[in-house]
Design a protein that fits this description.
The structure holds two protein chains of two kinds.
Chain A: H1 2-5, H2 9-14, H3 19-49, H4 63-99, H5 107-126, H6 149-152, H7 157-185, H8 198-229, H9 243-277, H10 284-297, H11 315-325, H12 327-341, H13 350-373, H14 375-381, H15 385-415, H16 421-447, H17 466-499
Chain B: H1 11-44, H2 61-94, E1 101-108, E2 111-116, E3 129-132, E4 134-138, E5 143-149, E6 154-158, E7 163-167, E8 173-177, E9 183-189, E10 202-207, H3 209-221
Parallel strand pairs in B: 1-5, 4-10
Antiparallel strand pairs in B: 1-2, 2-3, 5-8, 6-7, 6-9, 9-10
Classes of the chains: A mainly alpha, B alpha+beta.
Amino acid sequence: MAEADAQSFWSRYLFSTDHKIIGLQYLFTGMFMGLVGAFLAYVFRMQLAFPGAHVPLYGVVTPLQYNALVTNHGAIMIFWVAMPILIAGLGNYLIPLMLGCDDMVFPRLNRLSYQIFFLSAVLILVSLFVPGGGFGGAWTAYPPLSASAQYNHTPWGAPLWLIAVALEFVAFLLGGINFITTVMNARAPGMGPLQIPIFVWMVVIASVVFMASVGPLVAGAIMLLFDQLLGTHFYDPKAGGDPLLWQHLFWFFGHPEVYVVLLPALGIVAEVITVFARKKLFAYKTILYTSFATGIISFFVWAHHQFVAGIDPRMAHLFTITTLIISIPIAEMTFAFIATLYGGSIELRTPMLWALAFIAEFLIGGVTGIFLGANATDIYLHDSYFVVAHFHYTFFPIAVIAGFAAITFWFPKMFGRHMNETLGKIHFWGTIIPFNFVFIPLFVLGAAGEHRRIYSYEHFSQLFTPGLQNLRVLATVALVVMLLFQFVFLYNFVRSWIAGEKAEPNPWRANTLEWAAPSPPPHGNFAEMPTVYRGPYEYSVPGRPLDYWPQHLPS
Amino acid sequence: MLSWLVPQASTSARDIDWLFALILLTVGFWFVVAQAVLFTFIFRFRRRPGVSAAYVTGERKEEKRWISRPHALVIVCDVVLITGAILTWKAVKQDLPPADERVRIIAQQWAWVFVHPGPDGKLDTDDDVRTVNDLHVKVDTTYHFELTSRDVVHSFSVPAFRLKQDAVPGRMVTGWFRPTRLGTYDVQCAEICGIGHALMPARLTVETAAEHTAWYQSRSAQGG
């Protein structure tokens, strides 16, 4: 530790191998990219509400720019916001602390993974400003559109975009190796598999799922890059290639990816609700097994994205069955979370509000997924705004709601100070209420037959009615309101960091090991390495004077 | 219920709307129950001074029933929904009923080319009628369509028919529809296809047999 303290500013904060610094770097990069992604959403929603108008802070949107805006909004929010915040950021920060060890087992690999990730973030931002503009073939990048500048008119944007995505995958592969190895090898003495906090388990399962699914896509991305730059024809039917090959490779990764970010989000919610309900997590083992089941089933659902793609219709039956089966473990987990609240002593602090909102909003995302997993209704709803609304009701809770639950919950640990509770609640309501006014209209628009990625509906007589246009304006206004409230959060974050009320090591009276370290934890984490005596959720145990029982305290 | 928002103009639309309603009722039930229980717990178990939380592990058999019983009901619902989905899919997508007429649909950046069979009812004969962004079909007639693309992936979508099919370059996909209601409906491209993606609207006109014949005659009078 003395050696660490002697480091210069650069080696301590920019080139540190400390998992906490790297975690915070991922977190801050993710938050910054979140602002970029949100700005892109603001621009294209303004275009949809007021077609052809001058968008403040941007200008007039052209069709080519519109395609680039929606493409990069999707890619940035999933790969540069959800992944770095939920997995790399919080995973890095929390896993060694929750396991009771001093760092990841491969600290330099960890450093490298962030550097590659940072490079990928720079590249995706650069790709928006090159000649021809950013890539506009949707985040799914279906060839032949994505494979040839002749079709997509972005000779620089498309390859740069693809290289950025591939580098991002490499970064998370390295991170995943580190997570899995650390959890296998560096747990505190006494911590058996069933004493591991559920968040750590979720990151491990998510990392395994990511690593097992991303390989085919990296191979596919390299083939696509060859098609773009070297004139190969892997996906070009005119020379014997097949565009559907890419779709299979993409969705074989793309659907498990949903669970890669969902599982850590569920882990965050589990940690927060147990603390603020003072309850043991209901059916820990069941939650664990259903997470494994979810991870496995997620590999068998990808072709539900291709019900209308020209594949053999008989295949759709199998993928409808597997897709609807995945509702079973997820429903069971949701029931267990709700049951955890039963008999609790619930305190509605800001992190708890976010965690409860996660359950309430994610339910909407979950049940609307059935419409898309069922093959016949998907014929109608595929690529409509119903899909957009559905996945925002899953991804917004995952990346944003769980993200805020985590940041507000672990802020005292990260920075040794409390966030302001009043500002936190203003931010919460200012986000949750407008959020529903953004996306419920999109369900209606989708059910009315509005398809996505179309920059103006003026040419569609059945869609450009005053009633539907009013819904577009409503969604846009609500989005602007929601974005404005994010400045409350940023203000609260910065102000609390500098001048917030000082926090003790364990302000929430929680059990898991990170709360046994000082706030903020120094390089090396624990003054004395902890030993684990019990599971992480022993709250309100009968016969004990205190309603919590930290894992490291002897009986 | 979808028909409140969008016209129901084909036999498939009727079938798919039925499945949509079935799913809506089933998941609507779960949604209401789950939210009601969640909010009831949040309000009922708010912190009160002097009252501590219960110690419930969820590992004992009688406690597990709280989640295993609703879980069993979820499985029953899944079986019902999967059955409904499979039957509907077979009817609207997998089984091709015998065709009365055929049309060819060719997608390209950024227009739809439609080849109508002409008065003889056969494609690839001299009286074929080619149009751009303007498809004419007869009501209560079963059509087979042949869908292809000349460049990138497009998707032929007619919301009023609940019909959507990707046009994949290098493949010809066959599908069918049977219009049941007169009128003019929007055709959209549902798969992003480049700069002009928003500029690929086409019109689909469902007309009576007499109107359809008259349309063919007006086309040939124009030399079309």
